[in-house]
Structures are given as structure tokens and as C-alpha cells.
């Protein structure tokens, strides 16, 4: 670690802005940006666009050419030191003659953390890190958590009335929130590796759970980088009710589906886009910890739970939620309507405290982002 000057802050902020351009397309890789600065002038910049393609540093070095010699590189994540699908960026920076590297954070993978920085130092490059680290981490919460714990970062999204209700007793729930909130949810889906829901939401709401590009409000470049890719749709269905509903909207939409079923029963083959995942059945339902481990193993960084009170409640009860995204609409659904979470708590000592980290208006609705603490 070392002290950073105001220019360092400014250049790193630019590297983070660049990284953010990969928000919807780098999965399962992290979003990373890089800026090369020489004599106070920007000489190169770039960001990681898609997995399997060049890392941010490679784009910035290509732009800088000869001017990289003696330059400072600002990167939002420690440069890699390993041969993956591309050669190590630490070596590329050394070869180009970069004299100083400033990283926002170390690589969160404990097996490789610090190795890129060491490789640079060994080659005589001056290295410091920890500048705007919190912001850098916030760009890649899922990648960081998966590297550290093998688990994805879990957001539970719910639309509720001002009286905290999510559906009528009959199951009817469309629509509680307005168009702006629904567009916001589309963007949230688009940045997620997987969208998890329960079979009741799939059948009652005829939820497709897909990203509809036209509704996301992404820039043309973001859309193009992302392409037609859909998040993995994960459906919890211990009794295999999906098998008798071939016409449901979920199955009519393109994109892979992970169909979670009770491992004590054999599951029939559905259409090719559906893969059955047998899970242990616990008293609450299918084992959600086992599911998240499997999603982590498959490279899922950010997981969005879009379900009703039952499944959302199970995730909360199991202590598997990182953030709640509640879209609150100016309406009342009355005391017979379904709660936010099926989660009976007996005493004040059992309450779950949250930290509200952001709250904003979306059309006539409000979006509340709360972290589970
Ligand atoms: N306001 C909103 O944001 C929102 C969002 C989505 C849905 N909804 C509404 O919510 C209602 C449906 O919600 P829901 O809570 O009844 O159903 P859900 O959350 O969609 O799915 C629950 C179903 O998932 C299966 N499941 C498997 N493992 C589970 C586990 N560990 N924990 C919980 N469930 C598990 C169970 O069916 P099996 O026992 O058959 O496996 C269970 O009945 C609908 O009325 C819908 O309109 C509202
Ligand atoms: Zn790299």
C-alpha cells in the first residue's frame, strides 16, 4: 500500500467507469478497466468486454503502443499472472515498459492473490494497490464472493405494495409496480448470471424470466457486446410440475434452464434446453445451499432470486441472501394478501436487521436496496 495523489484517484475513477461498460457482458469474468497515463496524459484505455477475449490491459496497451514505455497503468483489478485463455497481463505490462502499476484491489482468488503484483515487482515495476477498493469490489460482488467462498452473490428482488404485500391470496399479482420499475428489473436480470424462481411463479404468473433486450434501456454498444445470451434460469420444482406444462411461457422462450427436482425421484427428459438438477429435499423444500454451491461451481457470479414469498422466504431463512431489492408501489393490497416473505418469526430477538444502502424513485414506485447484515 502507499499514498495516492488526487490524479491517481481521478485516473482510477476512469478505470472503474471503463470497467462498468462490461457490466452486462463479461460474465463469468470480472468487469475490469485499465488506463495508461504518461506525463499526465492519457495514452491508452480499455476494458474487458467478453469472456475469452482480451483483458482490459491488452486493449489499453494496444492503444498506447510505444507510449506505454514509462507510463503508469491504473487497473481496477490486480493484473493476472496466469496463462488462461489469454497470456498473463502482468507480463504484457512489463514487456511494454510500464514503470508503475496502481490497482484498485488484489485478485480476490486466494490462490492467486498478490501473484500478479509480485510478478510486476520482480521485473522492477513499482506497484501499489487499494485505491478505490470498495468501489472496485462493488462492481464485481459476485466474482469476489465466488472466488472467496465458492458461492454467488445473491439478490432477492420483490415487488410489494405500501402495506408490504406481494400477491393476492388467490395468487394474482400482476402488476404491482409500473413500467420504470420493470425496466430496472430487466437490467438487474441482464447483469445476473442466473435467475432463480419457484414453480408457482412460473405457472401462476407465466413468468418467462428472460432478458428482453428492447426493454433494458442499454446502449447500442452494450447490447451488441452482450448479444443474445440469456441468464441461466433456475426453477425449483420438487414435484416436477413443469413436466406436465410444455406450453408454459418459460419453456417457450429461448435460453438454458436448470430444473431443480427432488433427488429421490428420477426426472424425465424435457426439451433440450432443460437440464435436470437433482437436489436433496429438506423440510422447507429443496436444499438451497446445495443449489448455490452448484451455481458457484458453474461460474455463476450474481444470482437474482425472483420468486414469491415462499421461495424468497426460504432463501432468507437459510441465511443465503446478500441484498434485498424491494420495489415498493403506492398501492394497498390489504390484509389477506401474501406477505413479503413467508418467514414466521417469534420474538424481537429473532428479527433480521438490514442496512438500506440506496433508495430511489422509479416512476411512481420506489426502489429500496437493503443489505442483510
Ligand atoms: N411481488 C412479487 O415480486 C412476486 C414475484 C414472484 C411471484 N409473486 C407471486 O407469488 C406467488 C407465488 O409465490 P410462492 O411463494 O407461492 O411460490 P414460489 O416462490 O414461486 O415457489 C415456491 C415453490 O417452489 C418450490 N420449492 C422448492 N424448493 C423450495 C424451497 N426450498 N423453498 C420454497 N419453495 C421451494 C415449492 O414447490 P414444490 O413443493 O412443488 O417444489 C414451492 O411451492 C404468486 O402469487 C406470484 O404471483 C410475486
Ligand atoms: Zn489479464
Automatic annotation (TrEMBL):
Gene3D superfamilies: Cytidine Deaminase, domain 2, Dihydrofolate Reductase, subunit A
Coiled coil spans: none
Statement: the UniProt record of this protein carries the keyword GTP-binding: no
Pathway assigned in UniProt: Cofactor biosynthesis; riboflavin biosynthesis; 5-amino-6-(D-ribitylamino)uracil from GTP: step 3/4; Cofactor biosynthesis; riboflavin biosynthesis; 5-amino-6-(D-ribitylamino)uracil from GTP: step 2/4
Family the UniProt entry places it in: In the C-terminal section; belongs to the HTP reductase family. In the N-terminal section; belongs to the cytidine and deoxycytidylate deaminase family.
NCBIfam families per the UniProt record, alphabetical: eubact_ribD, ribD_Cterm
Protein name per the record: Riboflavin biosynthesis protein RibD
Organism: Balneatrix alpica
Gene that encodes it: ribD
Amino acid at each position: 500500500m502507499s499514498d495516492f495523489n488526487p490524479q491517481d484517484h481521478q485516473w482510477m475513477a476512469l478505470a472503474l467507469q471503463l470497467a462498468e461498460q462490461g457490466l452486462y457482458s463479461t460474465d463469468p469474468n470480472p468487469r475490469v478497466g485499465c488506463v495508461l497515463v504518461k506525463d499526465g496524459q492519457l495514452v491508452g484505455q480499455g476494458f474487458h468486454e467478453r469472456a475469452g477475449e482480451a483483458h482490459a490491459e491488452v486493449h489499453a496497451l494496444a492503444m498506447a503502443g510505444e507510449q506505454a514505455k514509462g507510463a503508469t497503468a491504473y487497473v481496477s483489478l490486480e493484473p493476472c499472472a496466469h496463462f488462461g485463455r489469454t497470456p498473463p497481463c502482468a507480463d504484457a505490462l512489463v514487456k511494454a515498459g510500464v514503470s508503475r502499476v496502481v490497482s484498485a484491489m488484489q485478485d480476490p482468488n486466494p490462490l492467486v492473490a498478490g501473484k500478479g503484483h509480485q510478478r510486476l515487482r520482480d521485473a522492477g515495476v513499482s506497484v501499489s494497490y487499494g485505491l478505490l477498493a470498495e468501489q472496485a469490489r462493488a462492481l464485481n460482488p459476485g466474482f469476489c464472493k465466488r472466488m472467496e467462498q465458492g458461492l454467488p452473490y445473491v439478490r432477492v428482488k420483490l415487488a410489494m405494495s405500501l402495506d408490504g404485500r406481494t400477491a393476492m391470496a388467490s395468487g394474482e399479482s400482476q402488476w404491482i409496480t409500473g413500467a420504470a420499475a420493470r425496466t430496472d428489473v430487466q437490467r438487474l436480470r441482464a447483469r445476473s448470471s442466473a435467475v432463480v424462481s419457484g414453480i408457482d411463479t412460473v405457472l401462476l404468473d407465466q413468468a418467462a424470466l428472460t432478458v428482453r433486450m428492447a426493454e433494458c434501456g442499454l446502449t447500442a454498444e452494450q447490447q451488441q457486446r452482450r448479444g443474445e445470451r440469456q441468464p441461466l434460469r433456475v426453477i425449483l420444482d420438487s414435484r416436477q410440475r413443469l413436466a406436465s406444462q410444455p406450453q408454459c411461457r418459460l419453456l417457450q422462450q429461448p435460453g438454458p434452464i436448470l430444473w431443480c427436482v427432488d433427488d429421490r425421484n428420477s426426472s424425465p427428459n424435457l426439451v433440450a434446453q432443460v437440464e435436470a438438477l437433482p437436489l436433496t429435499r429438506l423440510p422447507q423444500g429443496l436444499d438451497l445451499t446445495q443449489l448455490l454451491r452448484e451455481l458457484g461451481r458453474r461460474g455463476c457470479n450474481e444470482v437474482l432470486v425472483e420468486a414469491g414469498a415462499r421461495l424468497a422466504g426460504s432463501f432468507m431463512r437459510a441465511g443465503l441472501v446478500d441484498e434485498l431489492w424491494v420495489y415498493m408501489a403506492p398501492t394497498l393490497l390489504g390484509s389477506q394478501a401474501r406477505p413479503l416473505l413467508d418467514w414466521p418469526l417469534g420474538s424481537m430477538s429473532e428479527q433480521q436487521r438490514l442496512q438500506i444502502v440506496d433508495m430511489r424513485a422509479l416512476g411512481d414506485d420506489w426502489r429500496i436496496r437493503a443489505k442483510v447484515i
